[in-house]
Amino acid sequence: MRSPEPVRPRAYACYGWLAVAASVALVAPHLGPAGQQCAYALIGLGSAACVAAGVRLHRPARPVAWLLLAIAMVCGAAANTVWAVHVSLTAAPSLSAVDVLYFVMYPLLAAGLALLPERPAGSSRWAGTAEAGIVTCTGATLAWVGLYDPYILDADPSPPYSGAIAYPILDLLLVAMAVRLLVVQRRLRHTHAILLAMAVLLTAADVPYFLSVATGGPWSGPGWSVAAWLAAFALPGVAALHPATAAHPALPDPVGGGWRTAMLHGALVLVGPAATGYSLMQDAHRGDLDLYDFIVPLSATVLISLLLVVRMTNGQRQLQRHAMSLAVALDEQAALQESLRHLAEHDVLTGLPNRRLLEDRIAAGEPHGLVVLDLDGFQDVNDRLGHRAGDELLVMIAARLRGVLGPGDLLARTGGDEFAVLVPGTDRDVVATRADAVLETLRSPVEMCGYTLHVTASAGVRAADDMTERAHLLGDADMALNAAKAAGKDRVVWYDHTLRDRQTERIETVARLRLALGADEFAVYYQPIVDLGTSQTVAVEALVRWLPPGRPPIGPDRFIPAAEESGLIVALGEWVLRRACAEAATWHREHGVTLTVNVSPRQLTDDDFTAKVRRSLLDSGLPATALTLEITEGILVSAGTRSAQALDHLEALRADGIRIAVDDFGTGYSSLAYLRDLPIDTLKIDKSLMPADEDDHRQVALVRTVVDMARSLGLTTVAEGVETPFHATLLHTLGCDRAQGYHFARPMPAADLIARRVLLPHAHAV
Ligand SMILES: Nc1nc2c(ncn2[C@@H]2O[C@H](COP(=O)(O)OP(=O)(O)OP(=O)(O)O)[C@@H](O)[C@H]2O)c(=O)[nH]1
Questions:
Q1: How far is CA 574 from CA 367, 513, 577, 614, 646, in A?
Q2: Which fold has domain 355-495?
Q3: Which CATH number fits domain 526-546+569-755: 3.30.200.20, 2.102.10.10, 3.30.750.80, 3.20.20.450?
Q4: pTM to 2 decimals?
Q5: Which atom number of ligand 1 is nearest to the Cα of residue 388?
Q6: ipTM exceeding cut-off 0.85 for this assembly
Q7: Which terminus of the chain has a smaller tally of CB atoms within 10 A, N or C?
Q8: Is the CB of 383 inside a 6 Å radius of any atom of ligand 1?
């Protein structure tokens, strides 16, 4: 059930004053002259006080207008007080100070009403004037034929001159101003309706008064007039106290007037002539026709017609103004819609079409070839030079790419550092040319923030024929792009179905890996690392193996990349570390053998990595000095925040006594700067550097160089892939410290390591 709307406290004062005034107005006609004059004074002054209170309370938009209304009420009260004195002194008042005060009161009221409307922005200063004029002329005609002609001009004998005969004309002024107020404001607020009621009540009081005085009635006026005057005097106070008086935003200029206005105008045009006709008939009947009986109403009717023409012209102008502003608004809306559409389909930074527009074009058009490219190492630019520089670089790259487009090509920015070029047609050569041009144009160095940046990108290309499924174009090209990244970046890879097969296999492998992790299908194998001087096993490298029950083992090369890509490597790496530490702790205690465990770059981005290593050591009892973590140079290839975090982990662990080895040295980047920047103790020489035989002088020289360099940096060297006695002897001769490989032992389960006594002294011959 809806609860009734609470009456706002401010409205109470308004209704309270209305109740008081109504009571006084009902009682006053029954009082004597003195009592009536008291009532006039009370209501007049009370109304002025209420106007002042209402202005304070509601802070209306036009306080001056309300001030004039209040002064008018004070004038009314003063006039009635003077009247009371006057009546007590003379029997029949003539034009006097009383009338002067009343004559001042009416223009003040009219001025208040004239100043009250809040004109809507853009509306004419003359708005409502024509309507007010029409009402005045019609009223004047009625006053002429109904009051002045029969009761003043044609009266015999003429009534004594009195101020009473002027009041209907003054009322006309008030009604006209009230009508103008309504026309200008366009909405009948309570405040305006109350003020209109005041003007109507005054007229309704003054006309009987006029008739009464003109026909020799009492000078104090008939009872109805007394009640109506009192009510009318109270109404400015009621209006001011009403909550609707508070300032409101102005309404917009409305269009046209509607059928009600048309009917009103029609009635106003007809009322004058109808009343005139009736009056002429009466005069003719009495044989009392005069020239002015025609001239006055006719002049008023002509004036009304002229005012109607003005009103119509104004209306037409107003319509034109509205039509123009409507046209402007429609234009603005169309422009806004266009800019919203542009925004939805374009990238804000580069102004290029975005992925949505690209997809729409692919879906809608002819067959296309597609080149998608992703900048290599863009995150480093953001990390090193800041996001703003990154943005600047993207804008420059967009400009360069625009320069290599062919006719009909669409260049889009599809993501952070990803762009795409849609090439119309099915010609593979055209697409190939575009892909090469795109990578080539990016290779020229970019000068930015005092640095010379060497930007490269990887590209995936999907050529299309008429049968190519358009929905797959983008996905296929993305797949080829991923392959280009995985293959070492800065290259173009074309899509073919083997990519999809491999991706499907990878997805399946990841799903199986996830299950295998929970099902304990992994084992750690160990490969001995031998001291080339003593031929003794000094360390073992832990290597993870996947042994699915009832199926052949799955090689690390098949599942480690999938584990890396899916992030499962973090959990798998932690499991290997814990298991290997637990098993190696005994070997270390009994044989002094240390443990080497591989760590993936992904693990080093784990915030908890240091804590996890420390917990593994603590739980297993393996001392920190007996553990070596093997990393690849790759962790430093991406400089910036990610590698900063990796370095923090390595430095913290090294401070604990853990040793750090760089694995696979000699492949990949092998920058000497990495050896300088990384906190490492050991260099593992990649097996690809092992010479085939003693005649392989270049490889021998290479290994010698690496060993010499490592020694000069104070690093221990471990050679990987030592498969022959020749390798072992050569490495020993070159001064390499340690070695591992099939020549000594293959990776084996922990049990075999013990059974084959691999950890005992002199188990291996160099
Ligand atoms: N300055 C800038 N950077 C962005 C904007 N949008 C995305 N990025 C960044 O661009 C990088 C793109 O990520 P990746 O492509 O994985 O980073 P990457 O270093 O290029 O890696 P690779 O593609 O593997 O070489 C992320 O670091 C985003 O934060 C952009 O509008 N402005």
A1: 49, 15, 5, 11, 16
A2: Alpha-Beta Plaits (3.30.70)
A3: 3.20.20.450
A4: 0.52
A5: 1
A6: yes
A7: N
A8: no
